[in-house]
């Protein structure tokens, strides 16, 4: 290939790459920024309820944790560790979404929290936003318990028992899960790269429990995002996996009763007592006229024939006539 042909090929590849990048960035800008802003303009301040509540909760618990007595109550209400009983961890998990890590700058975390909840609420709705935030946080918490239960080893998956006393990630896992879910559903590769790539870099640079929980939250959000819009297909797969219920066989012989209710019997006509027989009927109250039963059809009358004389009478008559 000549130098001119090679340069033309490079220019063609670069042009296609630039066009693809421009279309991708334009679509992502409309899906992540323009569409939520339009919905905010239509809904007004009610579209930012979850973001305001999340930010207020984080600020409240952060200020409360600055006092010794308040820190104890914050840990009792929203502190989740792997060495707690499972029922207590599940009870504290919703509150842990508003308990920030004290070793991190709170205002940077609040900015990410508000942005994640605001975009998710405007794009997904309140119910789905809360569900994604809770499921991703719970997935990281439960997976951390499994890793600690496995113990050191297991090709680097297990964790030592000392990690069971480390506090949960708090709202950061929910923020990571919401951004990842939005990136998968809205097909935003830039947001996905920034979110997933930062979590992978964090787990490599600082291999601790929080980094692993963030990776689990990213994986759970990806799985939920791939299942988005496939509810009917998922239900069909689940029904196919469940055992089918077989009906009991119907006996071949024996009377089969109808499954319908019997028709109600007609009410009999009320029987009234006949009026008393007296010499005279009362003048004021005439006797009620009742419908009489239809008369039976009369048979045709036979023709009357004169009686025939008996044989003995005829003999007597003839004898008398012939006598002298």
Please, could you describe this protein's structure?
The structure is a single chain. Helix 5 (106-124) crosses helix 6 and helix 5 (106-124) runs parallel beside helix 7 (171-185). Helix content is 60%, strand content 0%. The radius of gyration is 48 Å and the shape is globular. It is mainly α and 324 residues long. It has helices at residues 3-43, 49-64, 68-78, 86-96, 106-124, 126-150, 171-185, 189-205, 209-226, 231-241, 311-322. 25% of the residues are buried.
Q: Give average pLDDT, whole number.
A: 75
Unreliable stretches (pLDDT < 50, length at least 5) are 256-261, 279-294, 311-324
Helix proportion range: 55-70%
* Computed Rg: 48 Å
Q: Can you tell me the overall shape?
A: globular
